[in-house]
Amino acid sequence: MAYDFDLYVIGAGSGGVRAARFAAGFGAKVAVAESRYLGGTCVNVGCVPKKLLVYGAHYAEDLEQASAYGWTTGEASFDWATLIANKDREINRLNGIYRNLLVNSGVVLHEGHARLTGPHEVEINGQRYTAEHIMIATGGWPVIPDIPGREHAISSNEAFFLKELPKRVIVVGGGYIAVEFAGIFHGMGAQTSLLYRGELFLRGFDGAVRKHLAEELSRRGLDLQFNADIKRIEKLDDGSLEVELKDGCILATDCVFYATGRRPMLDNLGLEHTGVTLDEKGFIKVNEKYETAEPSILAIGDVIGRVQLTPVALAEGMAVARRLFKPEQYRLVDYRMIPTAVFSLPNIGTVGLTEEQAREEGHDVQVFESRFRPMKLTLTDCQERTLMKLVVDARTDKVLGCHMVGPDAGEIVQGLAIALKAGATKRDFDETIGVHPTAAEEFVTMRTPTA
């Protein structure tokens, strides 16, 4: 059968664009459909604008500490509208770059809501197209729980477009998005509380990292309330919000921001016209080749619920493009040793196993840990401390995990991720000469196990 396209991608986020561009580069006839914004969540309402806001929030500390280095800055003020306008301009620029990447690669761009009408057919804007392969890369969508007054709460989708900075904010959630936005609002001067229903946030991260960050955030004046959850939200006549917790406590705020999870974005996608199946959490089931139960339909990225990170979606998109159209270059995506960062204030950078995971897997664990005040702060009154930690297998000397809380943690851990991916031992770390004077050199000078 002759198809209109070799590959039809639904969703122009990071993974979908990567798959489309490279498939076209390998000689395939490719189309991409996008109903919202080019670049997907990451570029528009995710990692990119979020990090710009993190940078903005961090300037408060820089201005505060400048006097210790002889600078007289005068009275500082912050204008939320200026930051958002500049952020919007940058995102618009990136949207244009994504458009050019697709068009210049020879990809056909369809702007509208695409819907599956069969295993090899897509309908969009009243037109139907056939494709030998169809890829679903529609990403995720934030979830706000069904509680009374949920319509008064916002998610990350709305937070980037607030007209003004709320004076009081309650952030609900214990994942990295909640922690990051709590730091953003707090750093910009809002009275901020972070509520999490569990004992301690960032479940799945190393225990020392979680505790250390909680201590640092509390030291900065961020209100952390664990074992807390919202029962209802009520909007008062003056426009403020009254929040009742499940324990009966009443809180007053101007904004309730939920970051309590994301669902796969499958709305009106037409899956019922195919054999595609979902798992128990509602994500699309795929095999190691990203094939669904309908062999002609593939799925990658957040919609399959594996590792929901932009670089992972990129790797998955590349893997599919290679397997279909450049098989001699194909290789499986390796989900081990994926480095990640949390752009909290201070940052987290991590790669490999946590101490808890290493012990659960039966390793004979040695822990090397250092906590210190960064050199930049020694002339200031700031008492913030950096944490660096290595998890090592005592039998093989192999470094199993590397964790950091402190300035530029993500930048530092990216380089260490290469070492861990290559199988570096603690001896390799010990025999590496450090860059002095830096915080990063602490990773190659820790000699005595702490546990």
TrEMBL record:
Its EC number is 1.8.1.7. GO terms for molecular function: glutathione-disulfide reductase (NADPH) activity. PROSITE patterns: PYRIDINE_REDOX_1. It comes from the Bacteria. Pfam families: Pyr_redox_2 (PF07992), Pyr_redox_dim (PF02852). Signal peptide: none annotated. Gene3D superfamilies: 3.30.390.30, FAD/NAD(P)-binding domain. Its cofactor is FAD. It catalyses: 2 glutathione + NADP(+) = glutathione disulfide + NADPH + H(+). Keywords: Disulfide bond, FAD, Flavoprotein, NADP, Oxidoreductase, Redox-active center. Residues 6-317 form the FAD/NAD(P)-binding domain. Residues 338-446 form the Pyridine nucleotide-disulphide oxidoreductase dimerisation domain. NCBIfam families: gluta_reduc_2, PRK06116.1. Belongs to the class-I pyridine nucleotide-disulfide oxidoreductase family. Homodimer. This is Glutathione reductase. It comes from Pseudomonas tehranensis.
